[in-house]
Amino acid sequence: MDLYDPQRRGGGHAERPSRGDRGSQSGTGATESAKQAAHRSAIRDRLDALAGAKPLLRVDDLAAGYGTMEILHGVDLRVGQGQSLCLIGPNGAGKSTILHSIFGLTDIRRGKIEVGDRNVTRLGANAKLRDAGVAYVLQESSLFPDMTVEQNLWLGGYLMGSRADAKDAAERIFEHYPGLARRRADPSRVLSGGERRLLEISRALVMRPRLLLIDEPSIGLAPVFIDQVFDMLRELKRRDGLTIVMVEQNARKGLEDADIGCVVVAGEIAMAGSGDELRDDPTVGRLFLGA
Predict the structure, then answer these.
(1) What's the pLDDT score for residue 289?
(2) Cα–Cα distance between 74 and 57 in angstroms, integer?
(3) Longest dimension (CA), the chain
(4) pTM reported for the whole predicted model
(5) What mean pLDDT is predicted for residues 30-43?
(6) Which candidate, 211, 156, 212, places its Cα nearest to that of 180?
(7) Which one-letter DSSP state was computed for residue 161?
(8) Is 20 helix (H, G, I), strand (E, B) or coil?
(9) Which sequence spans correspond to the domains of the chain?
(10) β-strands 134-137, 118-119: how paired?
(11) 84-88 and 243-247: which strand pairing?
């Protein structure tokens, strides 16, 4: 696989062409556009093959950003039920913006996002969580430090019909994760960084999502807690059939268990393949894996 760099399409400062050069430059532009279209078609074909005939999440030609700033320029994604997809790439490439867009936190200019057979492109975040089963774990800490572990879990069910439903859901989480249950009465501020991350993921599970978006699950964690977080995500795939889309700067770890991997460069998908294919690719290794 070749790592296509979207910045080649016209990055940097273009010189004004002379009259004699304008015709040849127009031809060059058309050639580059054809290459870009062929590359995107190849990416879609590879994603279709990896995700299967009926992907749980389908993103087509997504252009999105914040206000007047467009960050994503025609992103395509596919991921099947019970699969995980890992987004890697340089800082500022648009990886987190992809998650924000799927969850309804950006201004979408064009494109379509489907979860199951439902078009959720224009749904807000609350509707995506409540009605489409999409949950999001932010990169930044989102716990309430003076609330207990149990109370933080209850807040994960704020869109449920009653407090009783939220409490029942929290008990279900405690049954699966006895380590959290032992700390249910402790304020979340006394937890270690790894314990806080596990609590944030657990809180996202209260609403029984079909699709979990998670941004930088390993950031700032000691190796032992990184392993615990990824063990938890692996178990959620295996036991519950949860579909996971993550952004992970620790590319080697993120791709280790990923069914699908995508390299994001300058707001576009530059490469797609299985996690193993990307880990074994020499260019990916040199740029992102420290090989």
Answers:
(1) 81
(2) 16
(3) 76
(4) 0.87
(5) 86
(6) 156
(7) S
(8) helix
(9) 143-206
(10) unpaired
(11) parallel
